[in-house]
């Protein structure tokens, strides 16, 4: 219960004349609604109210001049015979998300599903910031002095691995120096200690467990050259209809907390992992001139770093991990990979790698296999395409999935089985 | 400057800060007949703090000119005399009293050159006592030099050593623009070795009074001896503090501060002014602007408590920066 | 006087056309003071003025073009566009400005006089100020200091009866300004500020006495501004009859009457004078319009003599 009073529209305004009511008794108003027109010594101004509810009484007739602060109307609670908010389901999946074309564009660019984004703008509108937050969850802030940060960068020390001894646990320059010294002497505390694969004889599988550190172009060059030189690649491709997968995902997301919502990438990865289990010829390593199938699926996910370079952290047991867990793990891995804070174990020995260049805008990816793996799955942008559904033309979201495979370990028929399995799995997302 | 040792065979006579100022005045009065000194009780009384004692006898009442207690009139007259071709040295008893003349300093001295499109130089030097520490209460003890440093168009000097007391005046008189020179009341009796090898000093640079590697203690004026005492105490604990004497609050010598912080990575600013809106705040801001990536700890400030300076000794001491509070701030910075 | 009057009338026009901005304080009605006193001064003397100083500057010989260009804020202005209406300067003519702090110029003038005295010259420093400044401490400090040190200072109080909107009687307990000035121990007298010949005679007498070592002198010129305090104010503090009455004593009309009676001017001469003045102002306005502005890159020039030193 509140009052709507004659507002002060300037430091020099003492009174105002109510010219017109724009609401009637019994009408509902929301905070910010223009409810009346007021004339001051200077001009006529539309004025807003600052409460939501029902206008229970209009106290002042148009044409009346009253001092600033005089109650003009009474606003009561919203009448209960209207919508019953408690009984109504949360209006999550109805209609398109409330936002602007600019934000839609940004969401498409960043691969963010707007249905899954919580709008913080007026009336639940999704803002650019909301999309940015969804695309790049903020990492935890490390307290370190400016000098310590500068030093860490030049010494290649991961601040996340440094213990701060300053006030409030802040990392000081000496802490970084100590950490750098320790890294030189003892076991590597951080992933960047893993350097480029040496030239010469091909390293054992462990030698490739970590993708090259950021910026280490030479290491990437060596690895990729070796891959192309040694591995007879063959390529297969298929377009997969994602309509049911994404529809299912939206429904699923409606029941989830914002933070737990799924993204298409998680579905795709899970499907790849399950397909890999079905076609074991693609999941494993080529070692000593023979194929060694892996016992589980450790799915490598190639992440391009903003500063340049690649890492491919592995999702262990991706085939067995429930979707929500896979989703959370993926988010965490990508964020930490981009901040150079992967644990060594997380980059070790993927059995199959997925490269998803959809967020870069391309439709088809023909990847180069990371030795000693024997296959690489490429996923392009999820994009609307015309598809034939029951003899009718429809527009569905689709993705082009490619397989680069090592002909030493598998044949085209194996590869085809894999892509077919992937397609089938994605048509039954509820089983993922 | 700190590094400059007396030349071989040069004398290093002892001098008080007061005597050094007087020698500077005497030299200026002897060397240039356009120079004269005016202010309250500079003549017969010998200067409220005894700086001009004996000058009346040597230079006569025309050039050692006692004024009525009319700060605005005699400071303005100094500005006018400078416009008229003389080189006035105007003494104001304390910075608190200078507020009565602030109109003339800001609206005329600092402004005329620009407002006249470069036609009118104002080569006046205004000297005044600043600071606390002598139980003189709230109307004789404040440190308002930071206010003056806010004003473009004037130079603000804070001699802290006998050498600067001796030589800054000559350099100030050479400046074609107005110079305000702050003498800290607690320094007048300070005694030091006068370096006779020094013939003149620059007004543009700060000076490293004590070299160190662990922290830069940046200060000026009456706080310099306290900072040096704190540095000695810290040295006993293995903390090697560098002490920078700003010497000039306007312009500020950013380069010396920046270089020092680049060496030590930590800064503690000691300023007898109140903390809020102070010159220490300005220096801290500049360090953040210019030395951010050199900092290994937040900048610390040791300032006067935000209270009118009280009379009673223990209260006054508690209100001011002291060696102990400087030591504590340094420990915080290097912790 | 005619030049000052027509110059300021043109300023009103230019202000209304937004060519001139800021505060513009018009001298219209008071011209006899600037001109009368100006006539009594020599080239080597100095003048310190107020923010209502167009008349003082023009009477001192600051070129019309330089003053007009300053009103326009142009680089060719007498303060290079940094001063504006309230801050006209001309060091060469020893015109030490346009001081817009009421009474702020008085100590400065004492200092100029002190320098002259210490250097043994026979120059006079003339300081204009108003009845408002008379209420400031700086006036009394300066009067005392100048009398104490016997400085060669001519204090000219332009008493136009209003300190902005406050009448003389509402701001001074004792409105006999000359009498109070005399109490500082200096010769002081009052003159009709609407009569240019009377002002000149009084100022000459005072200036020569000052020059001869007679110490500071005080001259009160009773005058009146015909227009508002600044460009436009509601002028609620004066009544229309009073303004009309003072306008009957317009100093230009007074002088013209005297000259006509003496046979020194006739319609033809007056017409020619008007034409000459119009031409001079037209030329100044055209030059000011065409003149360049100071480049913004020179903004920080003249803050100190050595750039970057403060």
TrEMBL record, chain A:
Ranges of residues in domain Peripheral subunit-binding (PSBD): 98-135, 143-180
Listed EC numbers: 2.3.1.-
Obligatory cofactor(s): (R)-lipoate
GO MF assignments: acetyltransferase activity; lipoic acid binding
Broad enzyme group: transferase
Biased composition (Low complexity): 182-198
Keyword tRNA-binding: no
Pfam families documented for this protein: 2-oxoacid_dh (PF00198), Biotin_lipoyl (PF00364), E3_binding (PF02817)
Biased composition (Pro residues): 199-215
Segments for region (Disordered): 182-215
GO cellular component: cytoplasm
Keywords: Acyltransferase, Lipoyl, Transferase
Superkingdom field: Bacteria
Family of the protein in this entry: Belongs to the 2-oxoacid dehydrogenase family.
PANTHER family reported for this sequence: DIHYDROLIPOAMIDE ACETYLTRANSFERASE COMPONENT OF PYRUVATE DEHYDROGENASE COMPLEX, LIPOAMIDE ACYLTRANSFERASE COMPONENT OF BRANCHED-CHAIN ALPHA-KETO ACID DEHYDROGENASE COMPLEX, MITOCHONDRIAL
Name of this protein: Dihydrolipoamide acetyltransferase component of pyruvate dehydrogenase complex
Taxonomic path: Bacteria, Bacillati, Actinomycetota, Actinomycetes, Kitasatosporales
Automatic annotation (TrEMBL), chain B:
Tree of life domain: Bacteria
Pfam families the record matches: Transket_pyr, Transketolase_C
Domain Transketolase-like pyrimidine-binding: 15-190
Known cofactor(s): thiamine diphosphate
UniProt keyword annotations, A-Z: Oxidoreductase, Pyruvate, Thiamine pyrophosphate
Protein name per UniProt: Pyruvate dehydrogenase
InterPro entries: THDP-binding, Transketo_C/PFOR_II, Transketolase-like_Pyr-bd, Transketolase_C
UniProt source species: Streptomyces katrae
Gene Ontology molecular functions: magnesium ion binding; oxidoreductase activity
TrEMBL record, chain C:
Organismal lineage: Bacteria, Bacillati, Actinomycetota, Actinomycetes, Kitasatosporales
Catalytic activity: N(6)-[(R)-lipoyl]-L-lysyl-[protein] + pyruvate + H(+) = N(6)-[(R)-S(8)-acetyldihydrolipoyl]-L-lysyl-[protein] + CO2
Gene Ontology MF: a single term: magnesium ion binding
Dehydrogenase E1 component domain segment(s): 1-295
NCBIfam families per UniProt: PDH_E1_alph_y
Coiled coil: none
Biological-process GO terms, alphabetical: pyruvate decarboxylation to acetyl-CoA
Protein name in the entry: Pyruvate dehydrogenase E1 component subunit alpha
InterPro entries in the cross-refs: DH_E1, PDH_E1_Alpha_Subunit, Pyrv_DH_E1_asu_subgrp-y, THDP-binding
E.C. number(s) listed in UniProt: 1.2.4.1
Cofactor: thiamine diphosphate
Keyword Oxidoreductase on entry: yes
CDD domains registered for this protein in UniProt: TPP_E1_PDC_ADC_BCADC (cd02000)
